[in-house]
Amino acid sequence: MPFIRYLFISGLAFFCFVTGSLAQGLMIRNYNVKDGLANATVYAAVQDKNGFIWFATPTGVSKFDGKRFRNYTKKDGLTDNEVIKLAADSKGRVWFFTLNGKLSFYDKSLIHSEDNDSSLIFNNRSHYMQYAFEGGGGYIWFLNTNNRIIQYNGQKTTYDKLGASGADLFFPMRNDSIFHPLQSSFHLESLNDPTNPNQQVFSAPPGAFEDAAFLERIRTHIVVILKNTLYSYTSKDAIAFFKGSDWGINDDISHMCLDGDNLWIGTQRALYFLKGYFKGQHNVIRLLDNHYITSLLKDRDGNIWISTFGDGVYHIPYKNFYFSYLNNTNGLYSHSIFSIYKDKKNDLLLIGQNAGVLNTLDANNKIRQFTLDTTRGRNSILTIQPYGNDNVVIGTDNGLLNFNTLTYKWSRQQPIRMLKEVDITPGGKIRVAAKNQVIALNDYTIGDLDVLVTSIASINDSAYYVGTNNGLYFCVDNQRKLMPAGTDTLRKLSIKDLKWINGELWIGTSDKGIYVMKNDRLSNHLSSAEGLASDICQQLYYDGVGRLYAATNHGVSVIDVKKQSITRNITSNDGLMSDDIRGVFADNDTLYIATSNGLCYFNADHIPVDTVPPVIYLNNIRYGDSTFLAVNNFAHLYIRKASFEAEFGTIVFDLPDLVEYQYNFSGDTTSGWVTTMSNIIPFPDLQPGNYKLMVRARKYKSDWSKTLSLDVSILPRWYQQWWSRGILLLAGLLLVLCVLRYIVRRIKQAEKRKTEYNRRIAELEAKALTNQMNPHFIFNSLNSVQHLILEKEEKQALNFLSDFATLMRQMLNNSRKSYISLEEEIAFLTRYLELEKIRFAHSFTYKFILEDALKDYTIYIPPMIIQPIVENAIKHGLAPKSISGYLEIRLEIVDDLLYCSVDDDGIGWDKSNSIKSSRLIKHESTALSVIKERLQIIKSFNGSVGKLEIIDKFKSGFGNKEGTLVEILIPIVKML
């Protein structure tokens, strides 16, 4: 929505005729470049058949729907950017007049010119068009600067035979039965028509100015502008019906506009509004001072459009002519008004403002100004109440004053700090609500209250209600004490105003709407839920004839007191200057409303309401990343994850932001409508199919418009066709079958491998068991037992046999397990080493070294992997030595593997191999190869890589040390 600037333009320069000056302002909206207008200089304005307003500028043309401007230039099809005139015909075409003389027009979202429309190809001979006329059969005639008539019949553009020898403007004007003008007026230098010597020229109407027949003639015939005089022209006579000099208008008239009984005159210096001119009224308002008026247009809704040279376009909404406005631009001290009252006897309107200023407006619309309160700080005039004949009591922030409406004399009555409200009883007693006290003037004061007193309402001369920020109170004069009143609800409310009406108390609150109390009981509650303009009430005003007006921060609510129901709301949308309402006063049919932005008064029963539904149109269509012209049938191939958007617009020049839209995408309105304030209707990822989008709109207080339908076809891609989906489904089934077959095959192969692995493991474990204990160890152990028995060492022999049996039993148990704990392995090795020490007569010592980190874990390893290495170290490394040997077994954690080293100081690996028998060599290589194969099988199951390495220390750089170092990395397994 373009930014709308409001200007309150008043008749600062009044011309006094009979009735004197008119103290009335008009609320005018200005549109300029920053609002979207193509240029601040606008030559002409027309309205097309659909309702759009078009503006001709030096940089193209602008089409306006009330909310946004759509600008067209040469790149959009114009023959030239500088468009000096416009004409709209009955077929909806808008014609553009440019200085290059080439014809072009806009029709159905496209600008037609000779580049894309062969019917417009025409040799203009360097002359441009001045005026346009329309005839029967859709013919369009143009008069160019060479006074030649050009005809356009929809097929071609040619010079017409009429006036072939040359014609002037009088020719089409005389033949107005053939040439219907598409302009509202014509400029002439003279009314002397040489070809029509019998035509008469009258400087004034030949009869009563208000004659109905003459007024009809003005509205239906050509109007000629001759300097600053307007003539009604026919082939028989030309009659002047307006002379600017008679109205103080000495400048030439640039444009004019007939507006019912009103007349608008534009000059190069100002705009003049002659209200009721054709009713014989003699008053004129000068508006837009120092503005060059280039054209005037009254649209079909009654709005007035004023184009200017360099100042954009001004718009006066039709309904503003029903309102009168007063503020600091046309006579008031300021725009902020706090109170209002009218003395009907003297026909004097009193307007209370800030700075202690009182403005008066008399029957002759003369405004006077009085400064009543000059106290520093807040000194606004808050209340004006009638008091006796020709007198009013005025309450300001700082005290009470008297004002005589006949003599305009005023006097101070009593100073009162922070006065809030004044109430006068039927007998004339004055009571005042002021901050934390209630004052019965010249009688008593109830002071030092712990609540803020905001309002007061008298029941009679001796009893009254008091409203505070903390509830409702009641008081009678003889008691002089405030007592809580009403129900518990009323005792907690923040009250703004009170009105006693026909035995009922109406209570306006600061945030809860209006309560009605009768006989100390709540009888009704009106809030925004029941239609109240706002729950924040600022004042209650009763007109004495059954209507209560609630002034709120969102307008005025009119309430039927008898029915206790809201009849209507009046807001800025209806024409008020502001929604912040300070006060209301009713004078018969005229309603005065004081706002924070000025005073508005009007006929309360005849507020114009535009109930005509708006014109809705399709602006464009967007699908994916592309934008398409507006068409009623849209078809496009499906785009994956693309959003479909339809952008609509309405032609609404008054309150365009309040337009509502409803749409239905099913084509069946029984399924309901979706309501939105957005004119863009999106549908993300629209699937292939046929859809029917129906859209309607309504403006402020109007009915819904006719439904606009859009047929949308999203065409499927080849892969979305039924046959392609069938092929894809069949291919998918085949693929699933192949995958299932592959999975079953893999499962069978895995089971087969698993069986093979188990078989190999069993074989290897059997081999390991076979190679666990060297048969020599068993035979030698038995020989040792025999030797002990022969030597009569039976006890030692029995111990040896017992340990040997335990070791054999432990070996057999471990051989049946896939994994044993590290603690079990160390215990097995320890028992084995002890037996070996006995067998070899304690010819060696051994030691286990365990890393501290091993204590933090429970580690499981395959059984019978370390023992064969230890056995080899004893038999082939330590046993052949002539002296005592040493064996060290080290265990550590290295990268989630168990590192084990078996280090002996025996004869060494190479020397041992040289003295071994062939049987022993075969045994060793078999044991070590079994260990390596077991490590490889473990890798195939859990991916961990083991390692076995044999190092001869003498040959491998360990100095002069002899012996063998065997290192093995064993994968760790945690049993669950």
CATH superfamily of one domain: Histidine kinase-like ATPase, C-terminal domain
The overall pLDDT, averaged over residues, is 87
CATH fold title of one domain: Heat Shock Protein 90
**What helical percentage do the residues reach?**
10-25%
Helix/sheet category: alpha+beta
Shape: elongated
Sheet with most strands: 5 strands, antiparallel
Strand content: 35-45%
Q: Which residue ranges are poorly predicted, with pLDDT under 50 across at least 5 consecutive positions?
A: 1-23, 918-924
How many helices? Answer: 9
Model description:
By secondary structure, the chain is an alpha+beta fold. Among the domains are: 24-169, YVTN repeat-like/Quinoprotein amine dehydrogenase (Methylamine Dehydrogenase, Chain H); 337-416, Beta Barrel (Thrombin, subunit H); 615-720, Immunoglobulins (Immunoglobulin-like); 722-767; 817-975, Histidine kinase-like ATPase, C-terminal domain (Heat Shock Protein 90), CATH 3.30.565. 17% of the residues lie in helices and 39% in strands. The strands form 17 sheets. Strands 1-3-28-27-26 form a five-stranded antiparallel β-sheet, with no helix packed on it. Strands 2-25-24-23-22 form a five-stranded antiparallel β-sheet, with no helix packed on it. β8 (83-88) and β9 form a beta hairpin. α3 (722-772) packs antiparallel against α9 and α4 runs antiparallel to α5. It is elongated and about 170 Å long. The two termini are 72 Å apart. The model is unreliable at 1-23 and 918-924 (pLDDT under 50). It holds the Pfam family Reg_prop. InterPro entries: Bact_2-comp_sensor_kinase, HATPase_C_sf, Ig-like_fold, Quinoprotein_ADH-like_sf, Reg_prop, Sig_transdc_His_kin_internal, WD40/YVTN_repeat-like_dom_sf. One of its GO terms (cellular component) is membrane. It comes from Chitinophaga terrae.
